[in-house]
């Protein structure tokens, strides 16, 4: 089988040594003469061919990429459709999904029992409380946690709780509750005050940054709080942003590129971001040398993939594979960002789940189906799996396309993670593995 050279990415590490990453096999190889001869078609070298293309050529198979029987590992539950902020890029606002509805405890119980009875599951299930601002319905979250404790004890299931909040309501009572029930907390914060307050404001126009920072400092003393940063402006200093969040008490930072036509960054702005990400990658390496991990989860997740040689990703995320979202009225979707958009409704806890709709969706969203033109010729396909369905939907009104904006953002992170991985000495990889990757 002839080699598609766009499936091979060549790059240098921080010592200027040349490497290759094979998008066929997921292997990272240091450049040598044998590889050069092979790539220049000077001589066929079976061993090099096996490393680069796999023994059986393009051996990735999608056949076992999802189970036909629906499985549930993670449930994202909308607790309320109300919010106290008016973020400029809010997806709920964009699709006019804000309303006054809140989840009630009967619908909650019905939802959990429906999934337990109708979906395959193991004895750990992740429950993510979600909502426009979910802490507006704190009473329901409290009751839900108690209900799940009872069900968990009865059925031998360990429910793990997490929630994503805008961080403006973290008073003593809430902090106490989060700590008591070991609830992981993720806060949406856009890194730097000036950017955050431009986009994430109260209904009366005030910025919300300082309130969040004050609240995090109280909570972070007792539990891990991670930051979910939407990158609205690519001309940012990532090191400064990470340090500010770290100083405020955040234990980790995760970034997402903004999904909004109005905020699309130019090619020049993207180059700025790529250069800045390079500086951040060097900062990451320098810190590992001093035995400190920079908890930028976008790098760490990809590093884990390179380190352990994970299976190929056929999808961008686990939405619809083993993760589902349930809205306040009990309707089921594959992803919380699509809740209330009728064409993406897969069922209802009162009326049942459309298994066939799920299968058809997954079959038509395999990365090789969605990205025939771009992803199939991309070296990063194996680690990527395509772009977020929501980003695609906003960009082109279909989940079946690939979002250019999201694609280049993700690809840049993969490139820098490869640079980091090949720049680390063996003992530094061992340190990273012992402290984070295997955990
Ligand atoms: S979305 Fe972009 S980075 Fe990911 S596989 Fe497709 S072309 Fe490659
Ligand atoms: S489709 Fe996008 S927003 Fe939804 S779960 Fe996947 S990555 Fe997240």
Overview of this protein structure:
The chain has a domain at 1-57. The model has no long low-confidence stretch (mean pLDDT 89). The protein is of the alpha/beta class and 439 residues long. The radius of gyration is 23 Å and the shape is globular. The strands form two sheets. The protein has a ten-stranded mixed β-sheet. Strands 1-2-3 form a three-stranded antiparallel β-sheet. The protein starts with 7 loop residues before the first strand and ends with a helix. 41% of the residues lie in helices and 15% in strands. It has 17 helices and 13 strands. Bound molecules: iron/sulfur cluster (SF4) (2 copies). One iron/sulfur cluster binds at residues 371, 374-375, 378, 380-381, 384, 386-387, 402, 407, 410-411. One iron/sulfur cluster is lined by residues 371, 374-375, 378, 380-381, 384, 386-387, 402, 407, 410-411.
Number of helices, counting only DSSP H or I runs of 4 residues or more: 17
**Low-confidence parts lasting 5 or more residues at pLDDT below 50?**
none
Question: Between the first and last Cα atoms, what is the distance in angstroms?
Answer: 39 Å
Topology, number of strands: 13
Bound molecules: iron/sulfur cluster
Strand order of the largest sheet: 9-8-7-6-5-4-10-11-12-13
Q: What percent of the residues sit in helical stretches (DSSP H or I)?
A: 40-55%
Shape: globular
Helix-and-strand structural type: alpha/beta
CA-atom Rg in angstroms: 23 Å
Estimate what percentage of residues fall within beta strands: 15-25%
- Describe the main β-sheet briefly: 10 strands, mixed
For the residues shown, what is the average pLDDT?
A: 89
* Helix/strand order: EEEHHEHHEHEHEHHEHEHHEEEEHHHHHH
């Amino acid at each position: 089988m002839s080699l598609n050279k766009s499936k091979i990415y060549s790059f240098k590490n921080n010592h200027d040594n040349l490497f290759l990453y094979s998008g066929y096999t997921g292997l990272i190889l240091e450049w040598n003469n044998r590889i050069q001869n092979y790539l220049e078609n000077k001589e066929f070298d079976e061993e090099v061919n096996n490393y680069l293309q796999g023994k059986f050529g393009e051996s990735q198979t999608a056949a076992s990429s999802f189970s036909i029987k629906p499985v549930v590992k993670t449930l994202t539950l909308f607790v309320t459709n109300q919010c106290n902020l008016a973020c400029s890029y809010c997806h709920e606002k964009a699709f006019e999904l804000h309303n006054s509805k809140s989840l009630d405890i009967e619908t909650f119980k019905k939802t959990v029992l429906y999934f337990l009875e109708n979906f395959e599951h193991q004895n750990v299930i992740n429950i993510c409380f979600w909502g426009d601002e979910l802490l507006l319905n704190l009473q329901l979250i409290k009751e839900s946690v108690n209900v799940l404790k009872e069900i968990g004890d009865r059925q031998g299931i360990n429910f793990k709780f997490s929630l994503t909040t805008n961080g403006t309501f973290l008073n003593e009572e809430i902090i106490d509750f989060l700590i008591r029930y070991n609830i992981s907390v993720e806060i949406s914060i856009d890194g730097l005050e000036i950017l955050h307050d431009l986009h994430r404001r109260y209904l009366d126009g005030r910025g919300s940054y300082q309130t969040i920072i004050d609240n995090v400092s109280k909570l972070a003393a007792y539990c891990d709080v991670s930051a979910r940063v939407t990158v609205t402006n690519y001309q940012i200093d990532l090191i400064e942003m990470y340090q500010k969040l770290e100083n405020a008490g955040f234990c980790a930072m995760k970034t997402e590129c903004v999904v909004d036509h109005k905020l699309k960054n130019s090619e020049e702005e993207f180059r700025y971001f790529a250069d800045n990400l390079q500086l951040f990658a060097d900062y990451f390496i320098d810190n590992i040398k001093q035995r400190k991990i920079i908890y930028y989860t976008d790098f760490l997740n990809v590093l884990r993939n390179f380190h352990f040689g994970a299976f190929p990703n056929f999808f961008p995320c686990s939405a619809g594979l083993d993760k589902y979202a349930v809205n306040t009225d009990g309707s089921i979707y594959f992803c919380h960002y699509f809740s209330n958009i009728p064409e993406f409704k897969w069922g209802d806890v009162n009326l049942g789940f459309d298994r066939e709709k799920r299968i058809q969706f997954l079959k038509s969203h395999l990365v090789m189906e969605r990205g025939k033109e771009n992803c199939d010729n991309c070296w990063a396909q194996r680690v990527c799996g395509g772009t977020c369905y929501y980003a695609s939907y906003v960009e082109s009104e279909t989940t079946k396309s690939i979002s250019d904006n999201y694609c280049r953002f993700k690809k840049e992170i993969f490139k820098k993670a490869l640079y980091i991985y090949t720049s680390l000495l063996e003992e530094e990889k061992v340190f990273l593995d012992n402290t984070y990757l295997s955990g």
